[in-house]
Amino acid sequence: MILTVTLNTALDITYRVRSLRPHASHRVSEVIERPGGKGVNVGRVLAALGHEVTVTGFAGGGTGRAVRDGLARAEGLTDALVPVAGATRRTIAVVDEHSGDTTQLNEPGPQIAPAEWAMFLDRYAELLSGASAVALCGSLPPGVPVGAYAGLIRTARSLGVPVLLDTSGEPLRRGVAARPDIIKPNADELAELTGSHDPLRATESARRRGAHTVIASLGPNGLLASTPEGRWRATPPGRVHGNPTGAGDSAVAALLSGLVTRLPWPTRLAHAIALSAATVRAPAAGEFDRQTYEELLGRVTVTGQAGR
Ligand SMILES: O=P(O)(O)OC[C@H]1O[C@](O)(CO)[C@@H](O)[C@H]1O
């Protein structure tokens, strides 16, 4: 089973508008509601790829119920979310049909009480005993300690479970020092972590800080991988238009899938690129267009070489 952790789950709401303008009122042409938060999206994509997945984190209130109802409809996915008194947040993606751009509005999330955090830690340790890999994804809700991911990484490592971290800011900085197996920052997150705006230098610097493998996501320009087995650059065959929300989560899903099935790095990266692009083609995060995925898989360019 692959375990995904989303401490700040969300009810993802996608609005389509003809053209988004500040200070104007808009008619929404389409509304999509899905269970969300980064690890939930990763879990939904992994389940659609045929993996057995368990999703944990927190859920509460009416929004939390909607998240859990959505998860119950997904095949291959087990809901192990810990109930909390506060209400799960909403995250809103506004897709501008004219420009093709997406604007994201993320609520902070509910206040997590110390007893709820303690309950989660017990559940996490139990779930890890049956996990082949774990992904720790997204922002932290208020009340969860800023060093939370560092602690979760240490627990996973002590049990021999490979761990992927996908977060930003101080939780990322502290998490990296706990030596996760893989991190997947975007260029901004990597620059904030290392102080370097050169992605090549920044990936090496992040590894020196503790991450065993760094997969830097360069948006439409692909992925840069620095691993103990070698360094590669993976580039999509062209630009794909659509809604990019959740494209990074699909890359994480592909990296985890490749990890547990032991694919060679260049193949893992090709899957990550094709699956991200196929998510841009889907209407909402946590979903992908299977035809685009299969079509693009053989057309991703991977350059680089094995070796330290
Ligand atoms: O935890 P955050 O960093 O706020 O990210 C959450 C958001 O990111 C997304 O997963 C897209 O990656 C959205 O679905 C939304 O839930």
Protein architecture, described:
- It is an enzyme of class 2 (transferase).
- The chain is of the alpha/beta class.
- The protein has a domain at 1-16 and 30-144: Ribokinase (UDP-N-acetylmuramoyl-L-alanine:D-glutamate ligase).
- It is built from 10 helices and 14 strands.
- The chain has helices at 38-48, 61-72, 114-128, 148-158, 169-177, 187-194, 199-208, 247-260, 265-280, 290-297, and strands at 2-6, 10-17, 28-36, 53-59, 77-83, 89-96, 102-106, 133-137, 163-166, 182-183, 213-217, 223-227, 230-235, 301-306.
- Strands 5-4-1-8-9-10-11-12-13-14 form a 10-stranded mixed β-sheet, with helices on both faces.
- The protein starts with a strand and ends with a strand.
- Bound molecules: 6-O-phosphono-beta-D-tagatofuranose.
- Residues 8, 10, 12, 36-38, 41, 91, 106, 138-139, 245-246, 248-249, 285 line the site of 6-O-phosphono-beta-D-tagatofuranose.
